[in-house]
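Supplementary Note 3. Input sequence used for the single-chain structure prediction.
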Amino acid sequence: MEGELIEVISIVQSSENIEKILNYLENRIKTPTKIAKALNLSQANVSRTLKKLMKYGLVECLNPDKKIGRLYIITDLGKQALQYAKT
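The predicted structure, written as discrete structure tokens, is reproduced below.
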């Protein structure tokens, strides 16, 4: 298993909220507001977590130039790390 994958698996398992957000995005494209409401988390927490996930390549913002209504999707690396975290 390569180093990058080990690092992101560790990140996914380090926080329950990270795992919740990745699970929620597994088959969806959503805004931070929708994620926060669905998972009963604060929008600030979701936004911080999404920034962290983007930094590690686990999620991608599809419209980063927008200030309102940014859409997020899980990446292939995010899906792979999530699968390892679930087992």
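The chain has a mean pLDDT of 92. The CA atoms of residues 37 and 71 lie 15 Å apart.
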